[in-house]
Amino acid sequence: MAQFGRWLTVAILGIAIGVLIIFQLGFTYLAPMRSLFGTTAIDFSIWLRILFVSSSVLFLVELEKYVVRHMNRNKQSRGMKFFSTNEIDQPHCH
User: Fold this and answer.
1) Three-state DSSP class for 61?
2) Closest Cα partner for 92 from 56, 55, 71, 65?
3) Residues 33/23, Cβ–Cβ less than 8 Å
4) Where are the alpha helices (DSSP H) in the chain?
5) Which of 57, 68, 72, 94 is the most buried (most CB within 10 A)?
6) pLDDT digits (tens, 9 = 90+) for 45-83
7) Phi/psi of residue 48, each to 5°?
8) Residue 28: which of 14, 47, 45 has the closest Cα?
9) How far is the CA of 59 from the CAs of 17, 52, 56, 64, in angstroms?
């Protein structure tokens, strides 16, 4: 039953992300939304920059988690502790 709950959570998260992407694209590209909010369409090259910056941030956060976990393993083998694993597993809120 736990696997079904995990699958359901992943499915709901995927649906929510899809809906948000559709809303964002509608906000950016539908003429009535652009005139209502005073926005303009985003060029493909700008989307590539957005994707590059956001993915690099994701990569750096995952690299940081890997390094901290690796340091914890080394310190725990010597009886020391760098961070608790709960601190590492929490999402970063900046």
Assistant:
1) helix
2) 65
3) no
4) 2-29, 31-37, 44-77, 85-89
5) 72
6) 999 999 999 999 999 999 999 999 988 887 777 665 555
7) -65, -40
8) 47
9) 19, 10, 5, 9
On average, the pLDDT of the chain sits at 84
Q: Which candidate, 53, 50, 28, places its Cα nearest to that of 39?
A: 28
The whole-model pTM stands at 0.52
CB 32 within 8 A of CB 46: no
Exposure on the CB side of residue 57, measured as CA atoms within 13 A: 9
Q: Rounded to whole angstroms, how far apart are CA atoms 29 and 39?
A: 9
Identify whether the C-beta of residue 51 lies closer than 8 Å to the C-beta of residue 58: no
Residue 91 DSSP label? P
